[in-house]
Amino acid sequence: MRKGSIWRIVALLMALTMVAAACGSDSDDTTTTTAAAAATTTTTSGPAATTTTAAASTPCVASIGIMGPFTGDAAFIGQVQLNWAKYAVELFNGDMGSNITLIEFDTMIDPAQGAILAPQAVDDSDIVGVIGPAGSQVVNAVGPIFDPAQMAFISPSSTEVGLAEKYDFLFRNVPLDDVQGPTSAAYMVAQGAQKVFVIDDQTSYSTGLAGTIQSELETAGVTVETDSVVQDATDFSALVSTIPDDTDFVYLPWQIASNGEILGNQLAEQGKDITIFGSDGMDSADFNIAGSVVAAFAPDLAAIPDSADLLAGYLAQYDETNTFGPVAFAATKVLLEAVDRVCQAGGIDSGDATATRALVAAEVALTDQSADETILRAPLSFTSIGELDGGAYFISEIQPDGSYLVVG
Amino acid sequence: MEFFLQQTVNGLTLGSVYALLALGYSMVYGILKLLNFAHGEVYMFGAFAGYGVLTVLGGASSPVVPVWLLITLMFAGAIVVSSAIGVALERFAYRPLREAPRIAPLISAIGASFFLQAAALLMFGSRSRSYSTPTLVDFSTSIPFGPIRVWMVRVLVIVTAVVLMVLLTLWVSRTRTGKAVRAVSFDREAAAMMGIDVDKVIVVTFLIGSALAGVAGVMVGLVFGRIFHLMGFFAGLKAFTAAVVGGIGSIPGAMLGGLLIGLAEAYSTGYIGALYQNLIVFGILIVVLLVRPRGLLGRPELVKV
Asked: Looking at chain B, which terminus has fewer C-beta neighbours within 10 angstroms, N or C?
């Protein structure tokens, strides 16, 4: 066989292998990503109204932004948030006869990326409010940019305590780490934990939550050991070796759920029968170790009969959901209704974006939805500083078939 | 004792990967005096190639061939892909710049690294993939090592790395092509005058170095599970450190450097803390450069005056 023929065969084999790798997916892989790593913006418009129930007297034309990790290892958060936000915009435009456009900003849960994208959102005078960003570290990056622009930003997934005190225009519709920490600690104590090993991943979200957990557990008389990793790490075997065999729980306040899967496997490899307790950042199909426990700031939507139609409508269009999605839907609905109220009052002024944004923010602050009006069937309003009024965390155990059983 | 042995196994596993990667850096530097910064991306593509083979052959949960054959084919697929990328890099990114000032191929190498990262992102997306190795080889499949048990996959990684390093050493010292590689690394011009096809030797060097990187990529996927498009960056950095610590241009030095860096990471995590890992590894690099700039096994460079 000639040399040229051999190289052609090799090239063909290479191409086939790469195609297989690109197409291949674990049972745990979810949506495919489409955006490149560089900062990108794409525009998603809500469809024109096809059904009307309570159409507004004046069709509202405006844009809102959504910031989240649509690509990257935290895409399991961002993709679902994006899809539920799109769904919310589509329903709202259909019901109200409005034409509100959703503009996407992919942060990859990277503060540096957020700091690049936030000015782009501010410079777009059509954008009157933002859903997101996800991740407390990204909130810290965009807050100093959104506040001067008086841009309301409603984060459906940042839980670090104290952020709303720092940023006047931040709103959050999720309970914070000062709720997650005590709830999680109380669960571990109730399970009889004597020793817990806490490993943070050095993000502000993680270190804050780790600190809260440690404090709560030590107050309850539990021995706590701690260590830290970085999000880019892929091998935890040396760290796992340092975890005492008699540890009851390994607590992981991590944002990269697949890292939790690696650590869990390495615990099993070294014969350590220790339960992993993941924070809400680990609430993902990428972390699927049976017997592990995960906290979530929202219940499983499938367990809420009154929201069954909404869920069915969503799943008819999109492949997957998780607890991050409905919370993003709720945040989007809050912003849409605020924008619409400003619209109806004639407050949308395309020539003065700052003034319009301030009006929208003021309306967001006045949000007072009853349980019947929200997807999670719990009232939704904000405190004077923009935090969710009320809210609770849910503890679930991962079952052998991958489903979640609420245990606390 | 048990703890020390466990960390030693952890360190040898990681060190094996670094050693295979560092060999590629050292071989290319020895031949061309070029730091191939795209080497980490060659390793990354090898990992994805292995994943591609795994997917085609049924995945970890239902492979259509025996496990031993599956893993062998994964290594083979990675070798083919990584070698081809390495050879292509040499042909298109480095060869045209061989006579240019040394900064030019260095910049080309950095550019090639980013090019390959971006290509991987477009091809595979940014979500990580998992080999799901525990489904393929259960954790109970292990061998005793003193008071601890070592998972068979780690044994495979360490043994494979050792075998490959021995084979490479024999190839370099005993074969005609290996001698040619040594001759070219010693003096390229003189080697050409002696009738050695320098271009061919350089291609073979890239091919072998890249093949080893591909094998390392599959090893990482098997042991640690997670592969993603940016995995080559930090691994490449650590392997480069290993090559420098061992003596850049020295094949035994690359092996020693890789194992030392792997063990340093494991022991520092075990006895000090996980966050000190990088501090200690790069601290070792600085100390070695200050005390013995040519590396532990590097030979001093002779310059005619």
From this structure: C
